[in-house]
Design brief:
This protein has 238 residues and is of the alpha/beta class. The protein contains eight helices and seven strands. A seven-stranded mixed beta sheet has the order 3-2-1-4-5-7-6, sandwiched between helices. α1 packs across α4. The longest helix has 14 residues. It is globular and about 45 Å long. It starts with 24 loop residues before the first helix and ends with a strand.
Length: 238
């Protein structure tokens, strides 16, 4: 399927840094035993550049049904993804994550609740979203607590950017929703500034949406006295 003649987002600089992943024995077991069932392309190379050689996914076949699709970029340990999937069995959930330890923890939660309408992809969410998901198919895209890259010289690494908004518009259905959250106020301000300059989006609100639980990471931020900035933006008709 054509990607509407849009160039893929430049990914020479990504919004994460791969580090040595220290995994527990339980995590290694979860990855090995549960990965084949819930991770799409489990046997394929992990390098996200292979996405560019693949056709968009047949999600109806993968999920064995047609349903509204929610995509989360950076699922972490899966608290939000799994809680939302439990509350909304009528939706399909697709999560991207680059760290094996996080994927393993998420897989354990998925398996505990036997969530057949959830799938994960190991790899860069921006590249994967561009190549693997058909245009104008996604109901909601979630980006919760991305790395804020607080130093000015690192701002180019931030995930939320004008290029990313272009991709979001291409992938969301008309009236689809982008949801974000950050505990870094300057990043929240930067996101607000991006949206204010982009007439394709309307601000839905700054309230936490009901299915987003307080994660361990967020709890640490709250204990440190940082305010959580939730945002929801709705895209208009392309």
């Amino acid at each position: 399927m054509s990607q509407d003649q849009v160039d893929p987002p430049p990914r020479g600089i990504v919004s994460y840094v791969r580090r040595g992943s220290r995994m527990t024995t339980a995590q290694r077991k979860a990855l090995a035993t549960l990965g084949p069932q819930w991770v799409i392309g489990w046997n394929q190379p992990r390098n996200s550049t292979v996405f560019s050689h693949q056709e968009p996914l047949d999600l109806v076949q993968i999920f064995s049904r047609e349903a509204p699709l929610v995509v989360e970029i950076g699922v972490g340990h899966g608290e939000t993804l799994v809680e939302a999937a439990r509350m909304y069995p009528d939706r399909n959930f697709l999560g991207f994550e680059v760290f094996d330890a996080s994927i393993a923890s998420c897989l354990s939660k998925i398996a505990d609740h036997n969530l057949s309408h959830v799938r994960l992809i190991r790899g860069d969410g921006v590249t994967g979203l561009f190549h693997l998901v058909h245009n104008h198919l996604v109901e909601e895209i979630w980006v919760f607590f991305p790395d804020p890259w607080p130093k000015t010289r690192h701002h180019k690494r931030r995930l939320l950017s004008a290029d990313f908004l272009d991709l979001v518009v291409k992938k969301l259905v008309p009236s689809g929703i982008l949801r974000t959250a950050t505990d870094w106020e300057p990043y929240a301000d930067a996101i607000d500034h991006l949206i204010a300059q982009d007439s394709r989006f309307a601000v839905l609100g700054e309230d936490r949406f009901p299915t987003r639980p307080i994660t361990k990471f967020e709890s640490r931020a709250l204990r440190a006295g940082r305010r959580i900035h939730d945002r929801s933006f709705q895209v208009g008709t392309p």
